[in-house]
Every structure is written in structure tokens, then in C-alpha cells.
Design brief:
single chain; 236 residues; alpha+beta; 11 helices; 5 strands; 57% helix; globular
Length: 236
């Protein structure tokens, strides 16, 4: 969490563009550069609908009128989003920072680079984060296998209660939450293959029970795997 706040602070000091961080649960994490007017025009419903319906990483420019824009970006290495803006492409609008859309695109790359650097510094400065990094790498490589906290702690040669504590402190989520979310995201592409049953998909991403997979899927997405498959396949 601290690397997000530090990233936004450095970005705002360099670019003077308001920015918010929003979690995948659509909660505001932090904001900088906002005043009462910016809060009043913030297109909360448009942004939340975009985030809520997105099935992959977001890199999207939102136009709320002819001259006012926001840029919504998925945050690398973190489950959440940056919202850059508002900016105005109209020089006569002195109440909102003037920037071109090209500049907004450059700024989005800039904040992601800052975030990546801050994250790496955090990993280097906190010795226990080596365990977190290895745990995440283990999930990436073995998510389709049976993974428990016990076996990952054995793999890392680390105390179970200590691991649970540092993982939650470093990521903001329990290990089980992280693992289940990663598996659900991996399953979304598999659901597009009509040759695979829902059970096939569940097993392919590490769930050994279709009902449990469906329950977890709905918890993270708000819909069942079957309804997700139908809606995704019906999209043009």
C-alpha cells in the first residue's frame, strides 16, 4: 500500500495531474491533487462500471464531455487501478489542468514506471518480501496443482503463522484470497473454450470441486462461470 501512495505523490509532484487509486473492490485507496470541485465532477459511476465490467487489464481514456478526460490504468503488481485526471484539452478551461491526450498517454507510462520502481525498492528493502516474491512465483507456476498454506510454507521453509502475517501485510490480502483470485482470472480464458466443461475448467486451474469453483468465481466476478461464458461468447 505504501508504494502506491509514494508513487502517486511523486507522480503528482512531477506532473501536477490529479490521481486516484481504486481497488478491484471499487474502494478508493488514496487520492492526491483533488479539491472540492474535482470531487464534484469525478465520474464515479462511469469509472466504477468500467472497472467492474473489465475482464482484463485496463488502459482506457474516458471522455466525460468534449474536453475533459480521465485515464484509467491497471496497477502493475497490485490488484487495483490508477485514475489519472481530470485533464482538459481546452486551454481556456483554467479550472482543470490543460494537457493533450498524447501527454496523458505519456503520463500513464510514467506513473506505471514509478510504481514498478517503488515496488522493486520495497521488495529490496524488506527482507521478508523475498518470501512473498517466491510464494507468488510458486502460485504462478503451480496454480493448477493442489496448493495449501502448509505446502507452500514447507516449500519456503518458513513458519506458517509468520508467512500468513507477512503476506497479508505486504499484499493487503490473505494468501488464500490471492490464490483464488489468480485461479479465477486464469479460468476466464478457458471458459471461452466450449469444448471444456465447467468441471474441466475448474480442475485445470486447481479446483477439485465444481461447486466450490462456481462459488468462488461468483464471489470475485458477481456471476457464475456459466453466465460469464455465455455473456463473453455473445459479445461482438
Amino acid at each position: 500500500m505504501n508504494f502506491i501512495i509514494s508513487t502517486m505523490t511523486d507522480f503528482y509532484q512531477c506532473c501536477n495531474i490529479p490521481v486516484k487509486a481504486v481497488s478491484c473492490e471499487l474502494e478508493e485507496i488514496y487520492k492526491i491533487g483533488y479539491d472540492e470541485y474535482f470531487d464534484s465532477i469525478y465520474p464515479i459511476n462511469d469509472i466504477y462500471n468500467l472497472i467492474d465490467k473489465c475482464e482484463s487489464d485496463i488502459d482506457y481514456i474516458l471522455n466525460i464531455d468534449n474536453n475533459i478526460y480521465y485515464k484509467i490504468l491497471s496497477i502493475d503488481k497490485y490488484r487495483g487501478f490508477f485514475v489519472l485526471g481530470p485533464i482538459s484539452t481546452n486551454k481556456t478551461n483554467t479550472s482543470i489542468p490543460y494537457r493533450t491526450l498524447e501527454c496523458l498517454n505519456y503520463c500513464s507510462n510514467f506513473i506505471l514506471n514509478i510504481a514498478s520502481e517503488k515496488f522493486n525498492q520495497t521488495m529490496d528493502n524488506k527482507s521478508f518480501n523475498l518470501h512473498i516474491k517466491k510464494a507468488i512465483e510458486y502460485v504462478h507456476d503451480n496454480y493448477d496443482q493442489n496448493i495449501s498454506i502448509d505446502n507452500i510454507c514447507k516449500h519456503l521453509n518458513i513458519n506458517k503463522s509468520y508467512f500468513c502475517s507477512i503476506f497479508k501485510a505486504a499484499t493487503g490480502y490473505t494468501f488464500c484470497h490471492f490464490l483464488n483470485h489468480f485461479r479465477i482470472e486464469k479460468s476466464k480464458n478457458l471458459l471461452l473454450d466450449m469444448n471444456l466443461s465447467i468441471l474441466d475448467v475448474a480442475i485445470a486451474v486447481g479446483f477439485n470441486n465444481q461447486n466450490y469453483y462456481s462459488t468462488v468465481f461468483k464471489k470475485f466476478t458477481g456471476e457464475t462461470p456459466f453466465s460469464y461464458r455465455i455473456s463473453a461468447l455473445c459479445k461482438p
